[in-house]
Amino acid sequence: MEILSTQLTFKLDDAADTLSIWAKASEALPQTLTENWLGEPLRIMFGQLIFPRMVARANSDRTIVSIRPTRGWHVDSDWAALWDGSTLAFDKESFWRTYASLLTFVANARDKQGTQNFGAHN
Predict the structure, then answer these.
(1) Nearest to 120 by CA among 47, 40, 51, 22
(2) Which H, E and C letters describe 23-78, residue by residue?
(3) Quick one: pLDDT band at residue 8, thresholds 50, 70, 90?
(4) Are 28 and 34 in contact (CB under 8 A)?
(5) For residue 85, what pLDDT is reported?
(6) DSSP 3-state of 87
(7) Is the Cα dihedral 88, 89, 93, 99 positive or negative?
(8) 119 lies in a domain?
(9) Which residues on neighbouring strands pair with residue 101, listed in sequence order?
(10) Could you give the number of structural domains in the chain?
(11) What pLDDT score does 103 carry?
(12) Which residue has the higher pLDDT, 118 or 48?
């Protein structure tokens, strides 16, 4: 999928219970902390603390890889979710349209000085 002129690739591995997201750095999605932005729409949609477990940043002279601790999935957080999986689970187009809209909103957020907000959206 393309968001903000940047190609994103998603891979769901049911056996490993993982979702992988790849994106090349761009002006709209800069390398620094973009991995948090990619998870932000999922946090909003599912009402869960979703963030990357493995993060890899690569440039011409080095690659940095980090592994983070993760939390388990909480089934009792549906009240905080924007996405109602029980009724919308089979509407793939709407799911990805919502993800793209939320990522666009997060990536375009600016602080009062007009500079990029590199953390999670507040």
Answers:
(1) 40
(2) ECCCCCCCCCCHHHHHHHHHHHHHCCCCCCCEEEEECCCCEEEEECCCCCCCHHHH
(3) very high
(4) no
(5) 65
(6) helix
(7) positive
(8) no
(9) none
(10) 1
(11) 93
(12) 48
Q: Which pLDDT belongs to residue 97?
A: 92
Q: Is residue 97 domain-resident?
A: yes
Q: Which domain covers residue 49, as residue numbers?
A: 2-107
Q: Around Cβ 36, how many Cβ atoms within 10 Å?
A: 17
pLDDT at site 33:
66
Bridging pattern class, strands 54-58 and 2-3: unpaired
Within-domain flag for 22: yes
Beta strand pairing call for 54-58 and 63-67:
antiparallel
Give a yes or no: residue 50 inside a domain: yes
* Contact present, 99 and 92 (Cβ < 8 Å): no
